[in-house]
Amino acid sequence: MRSGSRSKYRLSLIVLLVILLTSSAGCQLSLFQLPAFSTPSGAPATASPIPAGPTPTPMPMAQVVFVASLPEPLAPGENLALAILDEVTGLALNSVFYPMQPRDPQTYAVALPLPLHSVVKYRYVRRTNAQIQEDSSADVAIRYRLYHVTAPGETRDIIASWIDKTYTGKSGNIEGEVYAENGTPLPNILVTAGGLQTVTDSAGRYALKGLPPGTHTLVAYALDGTYQTFQQGANVVEGLTTPGKLFLKPAALVNITFNVSVPENTVPGAPVRLGGNLFQLGNTFADLRGGLSAVADRMPILTALPDGRYTITLRLPAGADVRYKYTLGDGFWNAEHKSNGEFQVRQLIVPETDTVLTDVVETWQAGASSPILFEVDIPPNTPVGDLIYIQFNPYGWTEPLPMWPVGSNRWIYKLYSPLSILGSFGYRYCRAGQCGSADDSATAGDASRGREVATSLAPQDLKDTVTRWMWLENSQPGSLVGVAVTPRQPAFVAGVEFQPTLHPNWVTSIPLAIQNVQALGANWIIFTPTWSFASADPLTLAPLPGRDSFWNDTYRMVNQARALNLSVALFPTPRFAHCPQLTCGQSEDFFAAAPRSADWWQAWFEHYRAFLLNYADLATQSGAQALILGGDWLAPALPGGTLADGITPSGVPQDAEARWKALIAEVRSHFHGTVLWALPYEQETLTTPLDLLKSVDGIYLLWSIKLSDSSAPTKAEMKEEAGRLLDTGISPLASVTGKPVIVVITYPSVDGAARGCLPDGQGGCLDWRTLGPPYPDNPSLKLNLGLQADIYEAILTAINERQWVGGVVSRGYYPPTILQDKSVSVHGKPTADILWYWFPRLLGKVK
């Protein structure tokens, strides 16, 4: 029999560390170019040197008058300002304010000269002793408004309310679709009006709800610039919905070469990135930690030239307004500055022909404070492939930054700026960018201030040692007991399902995670892309940047998995972000807070239909082989639905079953692969109607049912109970429906996991999603990695004796890195060794 599989499974990992040299023990460092520092996929680039070209000529300007209508006159001592925003540095970090002048008590204006063809991001601010930002009719802060400068002109805006006030006025809506000129629906288009924002789905649909009555500037903006920006006025009438069908013109792609000279004190070999306002330049169009929007992991990296300059060639859309900067970090940390200390943000209206730009970084520094060198030695058990990150805390934790490896488990990072605005600040180290989860144990958790450092006029060299990483205790392989495994038919599913939580910096970890899944011997991978229920009333279900995966990201993940010969299923899973409390945000709270009237349910089915069809289209276009509907949150929406107490009727329409069947049929018209139904198995009574199950191709059984009442159950005991449940509860279901059953195992790594319910202290059970990132640790639960492995082995042994089972899937895999935590994820846990043994044998690849 074989054991100790982790070393073999790591052989498939991409080895990202290379040995670099230090010329002395001080700050004089000599680094080689690192293969880990590569351009993120989605930003095609070439690195061949191109001769220097001329710096672009000054752009023509156009005067634009911004006119704002206030909900009420300003109080004495208050004034109104227009804030022009910088999304590359951070919306809250580098704004320029222009005082506005009154035309009457509730109308203010300001005229600004702006570069022609610019896309301006702005919002209004009421100024007293503080900056008071405008918000929407739903009392949600306005992120920004958009205006496309096509000629001299005037734009009029209606301010709904302010963040220190409650909106009491009337409202209306704008809804419609965005198409290409040839009539093809366009997903991933940002549509804004009145400061509200949304992103279109696969049918090009958008909805902006809760706009004050009046005329608003409606703008459709391609996140990657590949379609020309559309802009027109849209009149909103109280209580009505204004239709808006928009057609966008495609933009031709041209080669833009960026050549840049950097300051002499740049650490040789340190990655120079190009950060910008487009999707392919690192912009997430989200409000991330610390008020940032662009993340380093998504920014393309330039190539060093022999003459000391750096270069990159990108295919960019002609006519796009590109705001960009060079950086050794992200848009805020270690980004270039002007010689006077101001943030440098460059602007390029992409020309219609291939162009070479020649830029010079004046300085990485801002102010008189000297750079700070951070050096850290990390434990030898750090997983192969993990990049080490540093995270700074000047006023709250900001987005983590990848450090630079110098060999022998040692990493460095030199911080140049913006030290001028800091006094003392905190910092900490983490693995794979997962600060707050994969932390240095000395500074673990988001409540930690971190290690302390103060700026200084003298250079500083801080040497730290991480003695232990959080949730990385067990270095021993799982204990494998060899059994005779019966190979299954080729259609058998041996899969791993990713957890639905997502952060934009996962983009660098996903390829490695997919390789890890392949190394386990799996033949299927299940991705769980999300949209968010941002509100229960009025109902809103749409993708939220920063929380939910972009269309492009999910598409890329599917292609990365297929390139490794893995079959792919998409399991669309909503997130519940309708309330701010950390303990809130689950489906029970959502349905309890909803009015659940007939009109509300009609809207719910319409929104959920759009959600499913979006991913049916994405599955078709990306080549995914299966689509999974349903889930463990849907009970209130099924025929005869009840709320979480199992007693209170949900008010779901009487024709719910017919609605579901029609929805499944419509999904099949968009996607011709396998359609599965995710059926929760938390108790022995299954409530989903049989006729509904007969309309799909298989049952994706979410198995988290009790296997034992014992605090220390044996594998034999759990195997016997799993077999009984399969024989008495599931086998008849498979026989009656004639559908294959795939068992999806969902058990956390804690004491009591086999009981199927971890008490939440309120008479219910903890949701498994709250036992891992981004949620904090639950100290009432005791970590037990071995029990999770025993549960898996018991269930697999029971399945091995029942040929009718169509597959087995491990649920809740955490992709970014190994966390031997209390979650259901098996990544890097002893349970992964169990799967490594069983999967290839069930598939007949290993005897």
| Shape summary | globular
Poorly predicted regions: 1-39, 41-54, 578-584
Number of helices: 10
Q: Give the averaged pLDDT, no decimals.
A: 90
Strand content: 25-35%
What is the annotated CATH architecture of the largest domain? Alpha-Beta Barrel
Distance between the termini: 11 Å
Number of strands: 46
CATH topology call of the largest domain: TIM Barrel
Our Rg estimate from Cα atoms comes to: 28 Å
**CATH-wise, what's the superfamily of the largest domain?**
Glycosidases
The helix content is 10-25%
Characterize the main sheet: 8 strands, parallel, barrel
Tell me the count of domains: 3
Biggest β-sheet: strands ordered side by side in the sheet: 36-37-40-42-43-44-45-46
CATH class descriptor of the largest domain: Alpha Beta
Query: Would you tell me the structural class of the helices and strands?
Result: alpha/beta
Spell out the key features of this protein:
TIM Barrel, 847 residues, Immunoglobulin-like, alpha/beta, 10 helices, globular, disordered N terminus
